C-alpha cells in the first residue's frame, strides 16, 4: 500500500515536471566527443593507469600535461591584437537549400490550441489579439517562449504579449505592461518598451527605453526605477542568465552603465564600470550572456568600448574590432567562447564583414573563414562551431540570413526578404531551433522559426 | 546488475569505451535534470553537465568499481553545481527570510487563473534558495537518503535534515495557499 504523504507525492511530481526535459542533443554530442577531444588529459590518465602509483610520478605526469597543453593556449592577459587573418576560401553565394520569404501580409490566422496552464505558474491567457505583430522574442526552453509586440486597439497603449508552451505552434495572449510599444529604443522614443526577456516562467522584463518587470509570469507588471540614475536614463539592452538579470543603461549624459539584479526581485545595483557613448550619431549597446560569461559592446558607427563579466563583476573590456573603423556584433557560444562579426572598414576602406572567434572569454580574437557574404550585419547567433547564422544585407538589396555549417569556410543563403527589410532579432534557442523577427519596408513584422538548425525558416502564425 | 556497468567493467583498460558506456544518454539525462533543478537554469545545467563529464573523464582512473559510477558521477555533478552557485555573486532570497510569510501565487489575482497546489509548488521551488533546492532535489527527485545526500554534498546529516525541513515548510505553505486559492476561484 502506498502510504506516501500526498504533499510529498506532489513535491516529487512538481520536481519531475520542472526537470522533464532531457539533455539537449548537442550536449550529448559534446560529451560523446570528450574522450577523443582530450588527448592530453587522456594521456595523463593512461599514464596514471599504467601503475605510476607514487605521488612523485603522478606529479610528474601532471606537470608534463601542463607543459604539453601550454604551447597551444592563448595569452593569459588582454590587449592582444587580432590574429593575422587566415585565408580560407569562401564559397560563392549559394542558393542551395530552401530559401524562405517574408510573408507579404500577416500570416493567416490559424486556430490556437486549447490554452493549457503554465507548468510553473503564470497566467493561463486568452486569445492573441487580432493583427498581432511581433517585436521582441524570448524563450526559456525550446517549448516555452514569449513575444512582445503590438496589435490594433481602440486606445493606446496597444502593447501585447503572446506566449507559447509548445515551441511556437500555438499561442495565447497574456497581460503586457501598460507602456507604449516602441520599435527603436535607442534615440527617438521618450518612453515605452521594445524588448522582452524572461529568465524563467515567472520572472521577466520588458525594456527599452523604460524598464518593467514581472515576477508572476506576466500576470502583472511593475515599472522599475533604477537606483543611481537620473531621469532620462534609457535601458538599451537587457539579458538574463545564471539567476541574474543585467541591463546596459544610457545614463542620459555621456555613459552607458550596467545594472544587475537577482531575477526574483528588483534589487538593482549599478556596476562601477562606465562606457563612453562615443561621438557618433547613433550610439547603441549590445549585451550577450552565456553561462558565467557576459559582454557588453558599445558601438557608435564604430566599436567604442566594452565591458566584461568576470567572476560576477563587470569590468572594462577591450572589445574586438576597435581598430577596424566599423561596427561589430557579438554572439556567445559559452562562458569563454565568443563570436564577433565585424564590418571591417565601413567608415574607411570597406573590406566587408568578417568573423572572429575568441576562446578565452574575449581577451583575444582570431579571424576565421573568409568574408561573410553580407553587408551591415544586423544579427549574429551561434551555439557552437556546427552552425553560425548571420543576418545582413546582400549586395543586391533586401535582407538575408546566411548560415555556415563549417566554421565560416562556406556560406549558404537560408532566408531572403525584400528590399527595405531589416532583421530586428536573430537567435538560436538550441542547436536546431531558432527564431528571427523581420521587419519589412511597409513596417509589417513577421516571426520566422527554424527547427532544422537554420536551414529553413517558415513563418509563425499567432492565430490572432 | 546494470548491464552497461557490467560491460563497462569488462572493458578494462579501454577507458574510452568504458566511459562511453557509463556516461550514456541515460546518465546525461539524469545529470542534466538534476542540475536543472539545483541551478534553476537549463543553460547553466547544460554547462555544468558538460563540465562534470569532462571532470569524470579526467578522473576516470579513480573509478575502481563501475557499480559505483552513478554515485561517483552524481557527486562530481553536485560539486560542479556548487562551484557554479558560488560563482554567483548574489543569491535569491534565502528561504529562512521567507518562511512563514505569504507565498506569492502567480496570477492569483486573475479569477480565471485557477492555480492548483501543484502549480504553486512548482513556482515555489523556483524561488527557493539554491542550498535548499539542492537538498530538495537530491531527496525528492534523486530519491537519496539523508546520509547519501550528506555524502554527495559534503554537508553534515544534521544540516541536510535542517535544510529539508525548512524547504518543505516553505513549499507546504505554498501548496496549501495554492489549494485554497484554487478552491476560492472554483476550479
Walkthrough of the structure:
- The complex is a heterodimer of chains A (464) and B (187).
- With 464 residues, chain A is mainly beta.
- Chain A has a domain at 6-72.
- Chain A is 11% helix and 37% strand.
- Chain A is built from five helices and 28 strands.
- Chain A has helices spanning 6-18, 25-32, 34-37, 39-49, 55-69; strands spanning 100-101, 133-139, 145-150, 159-164, 172-174, 195-198, 204-207, 211-214, 222-223, 234-241, 244-250, 255-262, 269-276, 283-290, 293-300, 302-310, 313-317, 328-332, 338-344, 352-358, 366-372, 375-384, 387-393, 399-404, 412-417, 422-428, 434-439, 445-450.
- In chain A, the strands form seven sheets. In chain A, strands 1-25-24-23-22 form a five-stranded mixed sheet, with no helix packed on it. In chain A, strands 2-3-4-5 form a four-stranded antiparallel sheet, with no helix packed on it.
- In chain A, strand 23 and strand 24 form a beta hairpin.
- In chain A, helix 4 (39-49) runs antiparallel to helix 5.
- The radius of gyration of chain A is 23 Å and the shape is globular.
- Residues 38-117 of chain A have low confidence and may be disordered.
- With 187 residues, chain B is an all-alpha fold.
- Chain B folds into two domains: 3-87, Orthogonal Bundle (Rna Polymerase Sigma Factor, Chain: A), CATH 1.10.1740; 95-184, Arc Repressor Mutant, subunit A, CATH 1.10.10.10.
- Chain B contains ten helices and no strands.
- In chain B, helix 3 runs parallel beside helix 5.
- The longest helix of chain B is centred in the last third of the chain and has 28 residues, at 157-184.
- Chains A and B meet through helix 1, helix 2, helix 3 and helix 4 of A and helix 2, helix 3, helix 4, helix 7 and helix 8 of B.
Amino acid at each position: 500500500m502506498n502510504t506516501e504523504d500526498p504533499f510529498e507525492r506532489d513535491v516529487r511530481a512538481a520536481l519531475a515536471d520542472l526537470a522533464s526535459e532531457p539533455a539537449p542533443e548537442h550536449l550529448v554530442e559534446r560529451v560523446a566527443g570528450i574522450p577523443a577531444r582530450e588527448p592530453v588529459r587522456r594521456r595523463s590518465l593512461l599514464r596514471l593507469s599504467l601503475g605510476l602509483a607514487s605521488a612523485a610520478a603522478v606529479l610528474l605526469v601532471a606537470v608534463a600535461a601542463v607543459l604539453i597543453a601550454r604551447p597551444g593556449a592563448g595569452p593569459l592577459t588582454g590587449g592582444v591584437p587580432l590574429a593575422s587573418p587566415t585565408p580560407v576560401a569562401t564559397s560563392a553565394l549559394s542558393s542551395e537549400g530552401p530559401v524562405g520569404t517574408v510573408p507579404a501580409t500577416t500570416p493567416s490566422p490559424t486556430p490556437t490550441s486549447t490554452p493549457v496552464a503554465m507548468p510553473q505558474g503564470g497566467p493561463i491567457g486568452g486569445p492573441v489579439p487580432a493583427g498581432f505583430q511581433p517585436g521582441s522574442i524570448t524563450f526559456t526552453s525550446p517549448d516555452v517562449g514569449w513575444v512582445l509586440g503590438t496589435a490594433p486597439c481602440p486606445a493606446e497603449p496597444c502593447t501585447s504579449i503572446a506566449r507559447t508552451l509548445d515551441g511556437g505552434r500555438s499561442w495565447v495572449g497574456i497581460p503586457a505592461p501598460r507602456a507604449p510599444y516602441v520599435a527603436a529604443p535607442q534615440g527617438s522614443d521618450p518612453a515605452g518598451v521594445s524588448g522582452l526577456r524572461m529568465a524563467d516562467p515567472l520572472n521577466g522584463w520588458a525594456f527599452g527605453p523604460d524598464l518593467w518587470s514581472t515576477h508572476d509570469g506576466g500576470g502583472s507588471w511593475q515599472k522599475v526605477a533604477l537606483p543611481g540614475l537620473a531621469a532620462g536614463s534609457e535601458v538599451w539592452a537587457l539579458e538574463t542568465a545564471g539567476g541574474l538579470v543585467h541591463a546596459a543603461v544610457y545614463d542620459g549624459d555621456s555613459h552607458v552603465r550596467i545594472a544587475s539584479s537577482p531575477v526574483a526581485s528588483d534589487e538593482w545595483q549599478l556596476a562601477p564600470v562606465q562606457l563612453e557613448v562615443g561621438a557618433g550619431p547613433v550610439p547603441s549597446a549590445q549585451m550577450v550572456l552565456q553561462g558565467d560569461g557576459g559582454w557588453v559592446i558599445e558601438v557608435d558607427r564604430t566599436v567604442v568600448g566594452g565591458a566584461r563579466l568576470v567572476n560576477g563583476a563587470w569590468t572594462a573590456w577591450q572589445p574586438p574590432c576597435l581598430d577596424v573603423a566599423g561596427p561589430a556584433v557579438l554572439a556567445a557560444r559559452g562562458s569563454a567562447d565568443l563570436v564577433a562579426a565585424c564590418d571591417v572598414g565601413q567608415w574607411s576602406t570597406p573590406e566587408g564583414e568578417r568573423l572572429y572567434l575568441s576562446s578565452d572569454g574575449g581577451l583575444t580574437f582570431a579571424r576565421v573563414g573568409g568574408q561573410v557574404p553580407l553587408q551591415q550585419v544586423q544579427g549574429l547567433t551561434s551555439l557552437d562551431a556546427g552552425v553560425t547564422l548571420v543576418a545582413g544585407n546582400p549586395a543586391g538589396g533586401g535582407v538575408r540570413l546566411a548560415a555556415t555549417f563549417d566554421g565560416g569556410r562556406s556560406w549558404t543563403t537560408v532566408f531572403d526578404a525584400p528590399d527595405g527589410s531589416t532583421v530586428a532579432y536573430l537567435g538560436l534557442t538550441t542547436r536546431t531551433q531558432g527564431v528571427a523577427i523581420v521587419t519589412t519596408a511597409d513596417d509589417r513584422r513577421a516571426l520566422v522559426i527554424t527547427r532544422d538548425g537554420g536551414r529553413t525558416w517558415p513563418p509563425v502564425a499567432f492565430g490572432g | 546488475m546494470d548491464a552497461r556497468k557490467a560491460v563497462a567493467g569488462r572493458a578494462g583498460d579501454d577507458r574510452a569505451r568504458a566511459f562511453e558506456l557509463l556516461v550514456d544518454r541515460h546518465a546525461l539525462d539524469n545529470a542534466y535534470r538534476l542540475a536543472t533543478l539545483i541551478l534553476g537554469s537549463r543553460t547553466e545545467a547544460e554547462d555544468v553537465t558538460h563540465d562534470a563529464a569532462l571532470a569524470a573523464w579526467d578522473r576516470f582512473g579513480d573509478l575502481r568499481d563501475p557499480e559505483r559510477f552513478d554515485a561517483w558521477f552524481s557527486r562530481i555533478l553536485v560539486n560542479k553545481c556548487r562551484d557554479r552557485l558560488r560563482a554567483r555573486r548574489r543569491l535569491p532570497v534565502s528561504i529562512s527570510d521567507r518562511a512563514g510569510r505569504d507565498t506569492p501565487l502567480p496570477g492569483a489575482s486573475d479569477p480565471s487563473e485557477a492555480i492548483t497546489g501543484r502549480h504553486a509548488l512548482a513556482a515555489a521551488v523556483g524561488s527557493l534558495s539554491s542550498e535548499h533546492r539542492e537538498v530538495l532535489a537530491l531527496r525528492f527527485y534523486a530519491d537519496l537518503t539523508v546520509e547519501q545526500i550528506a555524502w554527495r554534498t559534503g554537508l553534515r546529516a544534521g544540516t541536510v535534515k535542517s535544510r529539508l525541513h525548512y524547504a518543505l515548510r516553505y513549499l507546504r505553505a505554498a501548496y496549501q495557499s495554492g489549494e485554497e486559492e484554487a478552491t476560492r476561484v472554483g476550479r
